[in-house]
Design brief:
Layout (H helix, E strand, L loop, with lengths): L1 H21 L28 H4 L3 H59 L14 E7 L4 E7 L3 H4 L4 E2 L11 E5 L20 E6 L2 E13 L14 E8 L6 E10 L26 H25 L2 H24 L7
Helix pairs in contact: 3-6, 5-6
Length: 340
């Protein structure tokens, strides 16, 4: 009986060993123990997230960091571009008017004596920037000193006389160009002139009176009314539309009375930047110079902010940066159409 039970037990143990080997497990030994681990049931229904799933992936983190950095740079760039654009508009509309007013005050003071004693220039090759006439347009409220030359630099001071044309009151087509928006915009409302309006121009030869005949706009590919004529007339020109300066806006007035003699020696050729619809290419040199100075000032400001307290750095650096920004705006305006 005992032997048969032992044999049965051995056969059972042997069967169990065969089953474990077939399942891919080593056969159990007498003293082997099987440990059962019971995971606590949590919020995930007993499932524990692996460390790989919860830990951030380094590559994805770097991509996100680069994306955030790029967006921050783009955002700051757009912000500064908007600030500079608004600053440029404010400079052209408001701040440049102060510069124009200061220039007109100096011209009126310096031109008073030559005009009173008959020493004002009458013709020939007159140096650019020289005061040559006083322009009065009652309907538009214009009382301006006219300078010789129609480049962007000269029109910052006030209306400019086209060098190749006679002075107002002399025989031929006297042309005066002026800005419409920037630097005081003396010809802002030139389109409001009507037939029969009176224009007075005082030069070294006396006061000439003109009567407006018509106002007009001319595209660049049409005949230009600023060319020479056989009669005595005055042509006032500026740009149109107000912000784009794509064509000329002007008014033509005929001389009332006899024309004065015109001295010989007037220039016969003009540069493209004297025709009013484009700027001065040489202004780019000054623009780049002041931009480099502003970049250096920005680096110096950043260096001071790290080594000094905030307010002393502000007091020293802010006026310098503002001055350089104004100089950049002034140089940039030279690249814009001269009659803008």
């Amino acid at each position: 009986m005992t032997d048969s039970r032992a044999a049965l037990g051995n056969r059972g143990g042997h069967a169990e060993s065969v089953d474990r080997i077939a399942a891919g497990h080593p056969p159990a030994r007498e003293h082997d123990t099987i440990a059962v681990v019971v995971e606590p049931e949590g919020l995930n229904g007993g499932r524990r997230e692996s460390a790989e799933a919860t830990a951030p992936r380094p590559a994805k983190a770097r991509v996100d960091r680069r994306r955030r950095t790029a967006m921050a740079i783009i955002g700051r760039g757009l912000t500064w571009a908007s600030v500079l654009t608004l600053g440029l508009v404010a400079y052209l509309v408001a701040a440049s008017a102060l510069e124009h007013g200061r220039a007109q005050g100096a011209l009126q003071h310096s031109f008073r004596t030559p005009l009173a004693f008959g020493e004002a220039p009458l013709g020939g090759d007159i140096a650019e920037g020289t005061a040559v006439a006083v322009l009065d347009v009652p309907r538009l409220g214009i009382h301006q000193i006219v300078v010789e030359g129609t480049s962007a630099t000269q029109l910052k001071k006030g209306p400019g006389h086209l060098r190749a044309s006679p002075l107002p009151g002399q025989r031929g087509n006297a042309v005066i160009a002026g800005r419409r928006l920037a630097y005081g915009g003396p010809f802002l409302h030139l389109d409001r002139l009507r037939r029969g309006d009176v224009i007075r121009v005082t030069t070294g030869q006396g006061r000439a009176v003109f009567v407006v005949q018509r106002s007009w706009t001319v595209s660049p590919h049409h005949a230009d009314p600023i060319g020479p004529t056989a009669d005595s007339r005055l042509t006032l020109v500026t740009s149109d539309p107000l912000l784009l300066a794509e064509r000329r806006l002007g008014a033509t007035a005929s001389l009332r009375g006899a024309a004065w003699p015109a001295p010989a020696g007037r220039p016969t050729t003009l540069h493209r930047d004297e025709l009013g619809l484009q700027g001065e290419p040489t202004a780019i040199t000054a623009l780049l110079l002041w931009a480099e100075m502003l970049a250096l000032a920005g680096l110096a400001t950043a260096w001071l902010y790290r080594r000094w307290s905030r307010w002393p750095a502000y007091l020293i650096c802010t006026p310098v940066i503002l001055l350089l920004v104004l100089l950049i705006f002034d140089s940039f305006s030279g690249l814009l159409p001269a009659t803008l």
